[in-house]
């Protein structure tokens, strides 16, 4: 079975150098495009891009903090992510040496200020709802099975929680025991093993 996974650090690893998470444990052919501090916009964008060029049997998406964002820098042809007051490069560009870091940070700072001033809680909730529903419709349209989880309930739009969609799984915070997490909330190795067992069980129930 070919799996495609996308999420944030909860599905990638705590840092760029610490790449170990639950997708690495699954006994399948797994492509994992998760990235630290990734936004839901990045998750959906990269997932659609991948599926336009590759066939997979199952997509697993791990939703993240809906207030994270990203924007495209056309001058340098790269995507920049926003996690609160922090700037993050997409994994396709974070090691690039050919970019003007000073210019990038100036452009991003303007984006961040505008973003924090204009995005209301209602706007973020509606944005998350429409993005997730659009992604689900796209996956249905291309006839691709999927499972959707999240960091926590706050990452899943309220309209989706409690819906009749059996492909919406428990968030990681409801599966991983507190004793199996670091102080910052990320799962430790045992936590990732625990969540991998949960995902494997769901795959076996639904698709095998």
> Would you list the SSEs in sequence order as H and E?
EHEHEEEEHHEH
Radius of gyration: 17 Å
Shape descriptor reads globular
Q: Note poorly predicted spans.
A: none
Structural class: alpha/beta
Strand order of the largest sheet: 2-1-3-7
Count of DSSP-assigned helices:
5
Strand content: 15-25%
How far apart, in Å, are the first and last alpha carbons?
Answer: 10 Å
Mean residue pLDDT: 91
Assembly state: single chain
What is the helical fraction, as a range of percent?
Answer: 25-40%
What is the total tally of β strands? 7
The description of the largest β-sheet is: 4 strands, parallel
Molecular structure report:
This protein is an alpha/beta fold. Helix content is 36%, strand content 17%. The protein is built from 5 helices and 7 strands. The chain has a 4-stranded parallel sheet with strand order 2-1-3-7. The protein has a 3-stranded antiparallel sheet with strand order 4-5-6, with helices on both faces. Strand 5 and strand 6 form a beta hairpin. It starts with a strand and ends with a helix.
